[in-house]
Amino acid sequence: MLKRSAPQRATGGALKRMAQLCLTLALVAHSNAQTLGPPAGPQPAPRIAEMTLVDDLVTRATSAVCAEREQDPQGSAAIDEMQARPSLPLLHTDVLAGAARAERLLPLARTLASDSLRALARVEGITAATLEPALARIAEVRRVKPDMELRDNASVFYQDPHTIRFGTLFLAGLRSDEGMISVLAHELTHVADGPRTTLAPLFLRVAKRAGTAASFRIAGHRAEELTCDLVGVMVARAYVARTPGVESLARRAARAIEHNCVTRDETDLAHLSPRRTMRALLALDETLARTVTGEQQATRPRSRTRRAASAAHAARPR
Questions:
Q1: Backbone phi, then psi, for 298, in 5-degree steps?
Q2: pLDDT by residue (tens digit) across 299-309?
Q3: CA distance 27 to 20
């Protein structure tokens, strides 16, 4: 054993105490760093803030759409209002006017529905090989037929894919070109899908995107109905862009979906409820939402001069 002098022992003890002090300070610093850092647990994701902004926009847009409907002489009747009325006769003045409007708009609706489906297919990654047969079916639709029994619905019968049938209440209740062309495009999308559900992949992808945007699940036949409604909205916006007028863009855009401004917000297995449909569409189409709230002005171009395969496919735009 080595001998050490007294001073040496004192120095060794001091070094030992200094080492202990340094270790203690290091532990305290580490503890404070943990305390002063981010709080434990999951942190709010940027996606939550983004979804809140979308929800606020959709809420404001929904109110704007229904406010426009109340003030618009050409505002569409709400679905629940139509359902509460008896069917109108085929020769009723409003039915005849609605049928004439639908027949007049059908050729343009075919063109715009095909263009909108192409655009939507590109966004959702649907191949041209899938889409082309669907577009060919749209080109074959030639006429509109009033039908008292359909009341507030429109339908496509697969035995007669060249005709869109409208309930007389629906023909009378869609009082504007924008509202009518939106519904025509909805039905043309059903025609495009056909009896073999050609567009099922498109419906599923739109439903998934809508579920994320609107924060509720959309499955089954509702996916098809919502996609048809979305094409209807896209066509109505395209129609407004190519037919300048003196009315406000907000009013004209609102007409595409204002028949969903119901008091009784009922649903069924095939459709989202009307108000939930409206919210999903506004969440999917931010341009529409900002147009009806007046936050985004669409460009004004220069003026220029399933389903029951054995029987019928009824599709109520909501």
A1: -65, 155
A2: 444 443 333 33
A3: 11
